[in-house]
Amino acid sequence: MENLFSYKISLPANIKDGEKYPAIYVMHGMGSNEADILSLVEELKNDFILIGIRGSIIQGSGYAYFSIKGYGNPDRESFDNAIKNLEEFIYKAAETYPIDVNKQYLLGFSQGAILSMSLALVLGNNIRGIAALSGYIPRFVKEEYKIKPVEDVAIFISHGEFDPIFPLHIGEENYKFFKERSKNVSFRLYPAGHEVLLKNKNDIIKWLNDEKQKSVEK
């Protein structure tokens, strides 16, 4: 697959020729990397194809997907390019690997959460679900992007009650925004700052397993 991004992929150990598998595209926060965020869902490696996508911009000792003018204020050109390239990456990954295109999930923390929510609006019901941890939806995405229907997209939003970077009201706004558009939205608060607690991690694992089971029953 043409490398729009560096990435790390984990295929189920007992993968079978001709079968398709659900996939989780995992995106990290600013200054982090794909290995760090993949650790959140490592225990799902036998049930899902896991793809950790590395941001293309060097940021300190890690990476970022887009540059910012300040917290909550992405550089528009950089952000638009990231969305375009991630959309293309997802389509190419589904052509390259044995991915069930009806069971694709996005998961991200901070910048990764911002992108997960924005990509859900760009890709619409082509995505099965997203888990967005401690992020926000840029205003220009809400007001200027061509937003597709997400009524069938399962949404998991979590936020730290004491987040000093993206205050609690931002998480509540995310929930309200998607609640008006999707039939399946979960919103979880944790006694945390801008971080992922073990309880948050465990809730994500359970949510992904539950959503996978629902897709099997349909």
From TrEMBL:
Membrane-spanning segments: none
Entry-linked SUPFAM superfamilies: alpha/beta-Hydrolases (SSF53474)
UniProt keyword annotation of Glycoprotein present: no
Family: Belongs to the AB hydrolase superfamily. AB hydrolase 2 family.
Organism: Clostridium rhizosphaerae
Domain Phospholipase/carboxylesterase/thioesterase: residue ranges: 22-209
Annotated keywords: Hydrolase
Stated name of the protein: Phospholipase/carboxylesterase/thioesterase domain-containing protein
PANTHER family: LYSOPHOSPHOLIPASE-LIKE PROTEIN 1, LYSOPHOSPHOLIPASE-RELATED
Keyword Membrane in record: no
InterPro entries the record matches: AB_hydrolase_fold, LYPA1-2/EST-like, PLipase/COase/thioEstase
One Pfam family named in its UniProt record: Abhydrolase_2
